[in-house]
Amino acid sequence: MYKLTKRLSFLTMIGMFLIVIMGALVTKTDSGLGCGNEWPLCNGKFVPAYTISSVIEYSHRAVTGLVSLLLLATFILVFKTGSRKDAKYFVAGAGFFTVLQAIMGALAVVFSQSSAVMALHFGLSLLAFAMTLLLWLTFTKWGDYTVSVARTTDGRKSALPKNAAPIGRGFRAFVWFVGVYCYIVVYVGAFVRHTESSGGCIGWPLCNGQVVPELTGATGIVFFHRIAAVIMFIFGLALFLIARKKYSHLENVYKGAGWVLGFLIAQIFSGATVTWSLGHDTAFLFTGMIHAVLICALFGWISYLCVVMLNARVPLGAEHPRNKQESPQPAKAPVNRKEAVTE
After folding, report:
1. Tell me: the pLDDT tens digits for 26-52?
2. Annotated region Disordered: where (predicted)?
3. Which of 57, 214, 251, 319 is the catalytic position?
4. Residues with Cβ within 8 Å of residue 80, at least 6 apart in sequence
5. Less packed terminus of the chain by CB within 10 Å, N or C?
């Protein structure tokens, strides 16, 4: 049952990733009404007539339905056979955000929704993906979610330096702050897509040939997103530098911060390619999809670090409460009644 749960959690994570990417494709190709204002039917049919927009929208709905069934099966297995509380939290969170984003998607089809609400729809899908990623990681070496000491090449734990510091409260708070801020930046990026404001800034890194353009309309929306992304890069760089200086002996903290910074840099350059590809439909679609893939990777890793920080309050060398087991009580020696003496 353990192997089956692990495989289902992996398939669910991949499926949720596809939902996020396909949702971005629906937005990029303006296929949101490819099935008309009907749900769950598509233009009055279960299998719609062939048009590009209807196929894209219908495929997105079909994948969402299949992944929901996978998630339900995983949910049942985790609660039936799993002993880890965090795995139950993750699968329950994935189910909650999946249902919520599906309801929002259906309402957006039947009733017109504002761009702000549709951007939130993408954010909920991203949260559902992060939950399934964290669930799958519980079955891998990264799934301890307590701070782990780096290992040597032969697999043994390396000796801790004398000045090894436990995870401080300030660093834990900073990681969570960066995680929340990252979600805000992602939301603003989704708002750019849903308002079709990508053309507000021509060129990169300058916006319409100016350092600070006129902050109105689409230009103001895109420029605000760029400034938010620059600040996010500064936060990500600071996160990595602090982790390298103080917590390089903690494998998942140091490597996690490195992956966050790496995906953040890739995300910034992919955003630049999106701008450079304006006016070329195929290139614009391709670069936009790469941008969405990197969003998933970036947010997934910062979510991982946030969860590690929740379990990083225990000093190194101390036993974590979740892993603590009661030691068996020593058996009492049998009483020899013949030798028992009463005063």
Report:
1. 878 777 666 666 666 676 666 666 677
2. 320-343
3. 57
4. 1
5. C
